[in-house]
Write a structure and sequence with these properties.
Number of strands: 0
Shape: elongated
Largest sheet: none
CATH class of one domain: Mainly Alpha
Oligomer: single chain
Number of helices: 10
Order of helices and strands: HHHHHHHHHH
Structural class: mainly alpha
Strand content: under 5%
CATH topology of one domain: Cytochrome Bc1 Complex, Chain D, domain 2
Helix content: 40-55%
CATH architecture of one domain: Orthogonal Bundle
């Protein structure tokens, strides 16, 4: 009788453990695979024949990888692999490719590529103002009383009413002018001023940060003190 009761108890415990495991399995969500992002359509900015030529050169550089890895210089092989990988990415970027993480990447110095990539992000003028006044330290020079750079107030008004009337900028859009003023400040210097701006913002700010700063500057459409 005692043995029978023990068997019943053990069976019940077994069923309870099975049921508990089944419930726990039901409560644990099944991981959903993350789909690969769909490439963003772009306008091809390079010559396909030249792209294929450069790709062939990079492919040739990898031919010695197996020898380097099997020999006494695997560090040379890995260094080559790393550099060729970077070069492949740059080829794609130069041809207009916009990566999924474009908003977080440094914007670089290609104004046309930046213009195309800006369509993928939205600028936040409040964050742009914080960057302009703080981290990027733009406001210190762009004060009306400083007289060393065009004042912040009325920036967008001046772009429309003054800057784009210059024949040198006849084919520019306001956004293109503002981007170039930040990324390549020496390309066009406002008459009456000397270029004292740093020239490496393309390496220092992300696409999202640039979009935020542009959005802030576009809000400066009041009367110009200049």
């Amino acid at each position: 009788m005692l043995r029978r009761k023990s068997t019943i108890i053990l069976t019940a415990l077994g069923l309870l453990l099975i049921a508990t495991g089944w419930i726990a399995a039901q409560e644990t969500p099944t991981p959903i695979p993350t789909p690969e992002p769909t490439p963003i359509p772009v306008t091809l900015l390079c010559d396909p024949a030249e792209l294929l030529r450069q790709q062939a050169e990079l492919s040739a550089r990898l031919q010695s990888l197996s020898q380097d890895m099997a020999g006494a210089s695997p560090e040379v092989g890995l260094d080559s692999l790393f550099k060729v990988g970077e070069a492949y990415q740059q080829l794609a970027l130069d041809c207009g490719y916009i990566p999924a993480d474009a908003a977080e990447r440094p914007v670089g110095s290609d104004v046309q590529r930046i213009l195309a990539a800006l369509d993928t992000v939205y600028g936040d003028p409040l964050n742009g103002q914080l960057l302009y006044n703080g981290e990027l330290a733009c406001a210190g020079c762009h004060l009306a009383e400083a007289k060393v750079a065009p004042p912040t107030e009325g920036t967008y008004t001046r772009v429309l009413d003054v800057r784009l009337l210059d024949p040198a900028l006849s084919d520019y859009t306001p956004t293109q002018y503002l981007i170039e003023s930040i990324i390549d400040p020496g390309h066009y210097v406002v008459p009456g001023y000397t270029n004292i701006m740093v020239s490496n913002f393309g390496d220092r700010i992300s696409l999202q940060q640039l979009a935020d700063v542009l959005s802030f500057l576009e809000s400066q459409d009041g009367p110009s003190p200049e």
